[in-house]
Amino acid sequence: MTITVESPQAPGERSRPAPRPASALPPAAFRTLRRVRFSDCDPAGIVYTPRYVDMLNGVIEDFFLDGLGIDYHGLITEGLGLGYASLHCDFFRPAHMGDRLTMTPMVDRIGGTSVDFVVHGHDGDDEILRGRLVMVTTRLGRPIPLPPPIRAALIRYQEHCQ
Predict the structure, then answer these.
(1) Is residue 13 a part of any domain in this protein?
(2) Which of 120, 152, 114, 118 lies closest to 136 in space, CA to CA?
(3) Which of 5, 98, 107, 151 is deepest in the core (most CB within 10 A)?
(4) Is residue 96 part of a domain?
(5) Residue range 100-152, pLDDT digits in tens
(6) CATH number at residue 53
(7) Where are the beta strands (DSSP E) in 36-113?
């Protein structure tokens, strides 16, 4: 007889996700490489946690231009705000100076004024981090509906990855 004991979970507490190998992601998904630099690391030689926020934002910028064909910087200079309402990361193991991380953004949900991205960061086939970013489109600091060209490009990408 086998008895399985699960750790008790406090009310409202979420379970920790398991890492997914890079090979489990859709082959058609956009990927970008990011080398871990000296400036990303703390004295122990591992990525300083706040630097991941910059990395994740950089992935989204690359994804807009190279994955969707939309000029992210042009949108900003035209007065469209692309800010984050929420950001969450799960870390599965440290990244070190010199590592080459493959970053893969996935579109999880497209809302009226926002889009949820899940960015997987891999070193080889090993997932080292997973970030969830909720981006809100704004003008003059107020949420606005996702512009139709952005919505259409995000939907195409979602369909392309299925």
Answers:
(1) no
(2) 114
(3) 107
(4) yes
(5) 999 999 999 999 999 999 999 999 999 999 999 999 999 998 999 999 999 99
(6) 3.10.129.10
(7) 81-91, 100-110
Cβ-count burial 107-139 (b if 16+ within 10 Å, e if not): beeeeeebbbbebbbbbeeebbbbbebbbbbbe
The three-point CA angle 103-18-104 to 5° equals 15
The answer to whether residues 158 and 109 touch, using CB atoms and an 8 Å cutoff, is no
Number of domains in the chain: 1
3-state SS assignment for residue 8 = coil
Sorted by sequence, the CB contacts under 8 Å of residue 112 that are 6+ apart come out as 145, 146
Question: If you ran DSSP here, which 8-state letter would residue 11 be given?
Answer: T
In a domain, 1, yes or no: no
pTM over 0.85: yes
What integer pLDDT is reported at residue 45 of this predicted model? 93
**Domain span holding position 79:** 27-160
Encoded tokens for 89:
């990361």
